[in-house]
């Protein structure tokens, strides 16, 4: 069955924000003599800001409350996120899908406030997505790796897919791949961390693994061919 709808993660997939998260969280942890490790990052990716903070506080035994984490992290994010740049190949892929009338959605662990900060300098491109589902949406009860956010995105399309298997999810994180598989959707993994940081079993379960979006071949999924371009 061919793909009819596409759903995208945001951080580390459409926008180069994972490096910003790492810098901000390390800046927060340094006064406590703690390091923000790759293992911790893998666990937090795809979670809501609150859930990620609770995980960080618990794992590193930080002397701060959930609210203190939210305030401190938000101060750092407000300064850093508006500078977020598109990942390689994003502009071309999204414009190609929109031109060919392939419905596209975003399902992100960000809340609406952070989503606005991150996309502020790319508003025209992000207008092409409908729906945009953030983790503070009332309908999303559980975050990735649960499938709720992807299922909600599929339901919110103006013309929902006939089957979840007609949805193609683009993800950079383990939690997101697990969520897509649980939703019975196909999934393209574009790792934002070294592949060795991911579970080898989970990598094998992804429909396709790419090193960057510019290598995506839509014809593999029954979509129209993408015109060649010298620009990425």
Describe the model.
This protein is of the alpha/beta class and 232 residues long. It folds into two domains: 5-16 and 84-221, 3-Layer(aba) Sandwich (Rossmann fold); 18-83, DNA polymerase, domain 1 (Orthogonal Bundle). It contains ten helices and six strands; from the N terminus they run E-H-H-H-H-H-E-H-H-E-H-E-H-E-H-E. A six-stranded parallel beta sheet has the order 3-2-1-4-5-6, with helices on both faces. Strand 5, helix 10 (200-205) and strand 6 form a beta-alpha-beta unit. Helix 1 (18-29) packs across helix 4. The longest helix is centred in the first third of the chain and has 15 residues, at 66-80. The protein starts with a strand and ends in a 23-residue tail after the last strand. The model has no long low-confidence stretch (mean pLDDT 94). It comes from Didymodactylos carnosus. Pfam families: Hydrolase (PF00702). Keywords: Hydrolase, Magnesium, Metal-binding. It catalyses: psi-UMP + H2O = pseudouridine + phosphate. InterPro entries: HAD-like_sf, HAD-SF_hydro_IA, HAD_sf, PGP-like_dom2.
Question: Any descriptors?
Answer:
DNA polymerase, domain 1, alpha/beta, 2 domains, 10 helices, Rossmann fold
Provide the β-strand percentage band.
Answer: 5-15%
Low-confidence region ranges: none
Strand order of the largest sheet: 3-2-1-4-5-6
Nearest-angstrom radius of gyration?
17 Å
Number of separate helices: 10
Strand count: 6
Domain count: 2
Q: What structural class should be given to the helix and strand makeup?
A: alpha/beta
Quaternary state of this entry equals single chain
Overall mean pLDDT stands at: 94
